[in-house]
Specification:
With 302 residues, this protein is mainly alpha-helical. It has 16 helices and 3 strands. The N and C termini lie far apart (62 Å).
């Protein structure tokens, strides 16, 4: 009985904290604008975050796929407070999602809680984001930098790799947040974590912000970015794309990307990534069928 009461208290306090925080009110406003229209976030952020609180608060052993989704959904809503979804070219969005499906359906993790989806961000900045919920956000600037479908597939595969390698979740799994997530809802939560109820609910408020800080500001570690590139080439090969398409994309980025912005702010330099990718690209033997995809690439991206 005490454990049930504790669960209710935690959820009520955490939900109240969210709704009283201006930061999350911005998330609600943004999600309301894009809900339904994009298919990326299909209800308002208030429901997303509220559900996140319930999903996280009942964790007993591990962060489940459902919890990954709701955490990622809140992260996506947060990113969309400062990045606008571009809906002017539905055919392009559909095309990107077809590439994503071709890659994921042939991958080791084809199914996640609510599937993978791609949306275009209305920005000339060269950047892309992926959340644990399967949301992949790619700027118009990055799309315009691609010279072929295989190069574009390299970008999408890199973001899928971050999701499948759980890099977003790992940015909180090495902190006190995970400890709180795993024990909240048990009668011994305070004793295990050394935190009281207020501290436990406060630490949940940090989880989404910590992931966003990693993704948008500080970036993943160099080893994680290299791992995502290596995994991306394997994913591309499995789907019939030539893995060297990723290197082609990186070469395009090296000529247009500025340091300190977009990918240049959160990723190793294109030259470093090319050197890393070239070490393993020859291990993937795929017939070069890229010419057959050029016409549809040109039609979708012009």
């Amino acid at each position: 009985m005490k454990a049930k009461i504790f669960i209710i208290i935690v959820i009520v306090i955490f939900t109240g904290l969210i709704y009283s925080c201006q930061f999350f009110m911005k998330v609600v406003d943004t999600s309301a604008q894009v809900a339904g229209a994009t298919g990326l976030i299909n209800s308002n952020a208030a429901n997303a975050i509220s559900t996140s609180a319930r999903a996280i608060g009942t964790a007993a052993e591990e962060i489940t796929p459902e919890q990954e989704y709701y955490i990622g959904r809140a992260v996506a809503a947060n990113i969309l407070t400062s990045h606008k979804i571009w809906n002017d070219n539905k055919a392009l969005t559909d095309y990107l999602n077809q590439i994503c499906t071709a890659i994921t359906i042939n991958s080791p993790r084809p199914n996640i809680f609510n599937g993978y989806r791609v949306a275009v961000i209305d920005s000339n900045e060269i950047n892309a984001f992926a959340t644990s919920g399967g949301h992949i956000l790619i700027t118009r600037g990055l799309i315009n930098s691609a010279k072929s479908e295989d190069a574009l597939a390299g970008v999408i595969a890199h973001e899928i790799a971050h999701i499948q390698l759980k890099h977003g979740i790992k940015s909180i799994k090495n902190s006190r947040i995970t400890q709180a997530i795993l024990v909240t809802g048990t009668a011994t939560a305070g004793a295990v974590t050394g935190m009281n109820v207020n501290e436990l609910t406060s630490v949940f408020n940090e989880s989404v912000g910590e992931i966003v800080q990693t993704m948008v500001n500080s970036g993943y570690s160099q080893s994680q970015e290299f791992e995502a590139d290596t995994t991306a080439m394997s994913l591309m090969a499995s789907a019939g794309y030539k893995p060297s398409g990723l290197i082609e994309m990186l070469r395009s980025l090296s000529s247009v990307q500025r340091s300190g912005s977009g990918f240049g702010k959160t990723h190793p330099t294109p030259a470093q990534r090319i050197t890393n990718a070239e070490r393993t690209v020859s291990s993937h033997r795929v017939a070069d069928t890229s010419a057959s995809r050029q016409e549809r690439f040109t039609a979708a991206t012009r």
